[in-house]
Specification:
The chain has 4 helices and 7 strands. The protein is of the alpha+beta class. It has a domain of 105 residues: 3-Layer(aba) Sandwich (Aminopeptidase), CATH 3.40.630.30. It binds coenzyme A. It comes from Methanoculleus taiwanensis.
């Protein structure tokens, strides 16, 4: 369980430096500072950080997408700093963003994950996500993406 001091709140521009550091530790092809600032500017309501004793321990960035027929949430980026993994922080961040998407009328949430990232796939399965299809060559190094979805049941 996350410790008592642990909080989830909306991200602010001042958090981006710490988020960049977490991002670099988590991914082989990290988003750069500018992309993170843009995500926050475009979807300020769907970008959250986990914090403990004034330090950012994880973040999640998403956005709402409207297909014309359906409104769904998209998890675009998620990482927890390595020392704080396995304490429930990732799950708290996903649930907070899901709550936001539901409030805004989404019918479900979609995300892409590297086919090699079996740990994250297992994490998302624990949270109720199912694999729906793969997208070939989705990532810069040619790796395929697994698309996973969770449908809200109201
Ligand atoms: C994926 C990630 C965000 C999970 O964050 P976390 O805070 O460690 O996850 P939690 O502690 O909230 O785990 C929630 C559940 O998922 C499970 N889980 C988490 N990581 C797992 C892993 N690597 N393998 C298997 N299960 C895992 C936990 O056991 C827990 O299950 P429980 O509810 O039965 O206890 C974190 O490992 C990370 O930052 N990874 C690198 C970046 C990444 O891959 N992001 C996702 C890209 S799409």
């Amino acid at each position: 369980m996350p410790s008592q001091e642990h909080t989830i709140r909306r991200a602010r521009p001042a958090d981006i430096d710490e988020i960049v550091a977490i991002e670099r530790e988590a991914f082989p092809d990290p988003w750069d500072e500018r992309t993170l600032h843009e995500a926050l500017a475009i979807y300020p309501g769907a970008f959250f950080v986990a914090g403990e004793n004034g330090q950012v321990t994880g973040f999640i960035a998403g956005g709402l997408e409207d297909t014309g027929e359906e409104l769904y949430g998209h998890i675009m980026n998620l990482a927890v700093t390595p020392a704080c993994r396995g304490q429930g922080i990732g799950a708290l961040l996903v649930r907070r963003l899901e709550q936001q998407f539901a409030l805004e009328g989404a019918t479900g949430v979609q995300l892409e994950v590297r086919v090699s990232n079996t740990g994250a796939q297992q994490f998302y399965r624990r949270l109720g996500y199912q694999e729906v299809f793969t997208v070939a060559n989705y990532y810069g190094n040619g790796e395929d993406a697994l698309v996973m979805m969770k449908w809200f049941r109201f």
